[in-house]
Amino acid sequence: MAEKSSNKVWDPLRRRQVSLTPEERVRQWFIGVLAQECGIPMHMMMSEAAFSLGDKNYRADIIVYRRDLSPWVVVECKRPEVALDEAVLDQAIRYNMVLGVDFIIITNGNGTLCLERGEDGTYAPVEVLPLWKNLQ
Q1: How far apart are CA 118 and CA 121, in angstroms?
Q2: Residues near 56 by Cβ (< 8 Å), separated by ≥ 6?
Q3: CA pseudo-torsion sign 20, 107, 48, 27
């Protein structure tokens, strides 16, 4: 659970205090969801994970790694007032061009959309979040 002190919050993944912006509040809430509801160990997640696509540098809000340390889930967090529209999904899909995850999740704290990669490589919405215990 995120500890708050004025305008800072403890990020258990980065192991430091960070500014408590509206997006950060959503990110910290969803880290808790992944840990508590999905059973994902904290040491298998990274927040603000940097990577490159071509000559551009990006940062994924949260990446969950498989036991072999390959990316399994990417999460894009937005401020609560940002709609979970095609632009937000496109951003997460761009990240996935590098990451190759099984699940793409977008959330603004008010709503969450989870997509799972099918055998044909396309993503389709699913009703439940991925559970660590089901990871092969």
Answers
A1: 5
A2: none
A3: positive
- The amino acid at residue 135 is L
- For residue 95, the tally of other CB atoms under 10 A from its CB is 23
8 forms beta bridges with 5, 19
Q: Which two tokens stand for residue 136?
A: 């092969």
3-class secondary structure, 15: coil
Give the pLDDT confidence of 88-99 residue by residue, as tens digits: 988 888 888 889
Q: Quick check: 114 and 34 in contact, CB under 8 A?
A: no
Residue 29 is classified by DSSP as H
Helix (H) or strand (E) segment spanning residue 77: strand 71-77
Listed in sequence order, the residues at least 6 apart from 112 whose beta carbon sits closer than 8 Å to its beta carbon are 30, 84, 105, 106, 129
> Residue 27 carries which DSSP code?
H
Rounded to the nearest integer, the mean pLDDT of the chain is: 91
Mean pLDDT of 109-133: 94
What pLDDT score does 90 carry?
87
- Residue reference for tokens 């559970």: 131
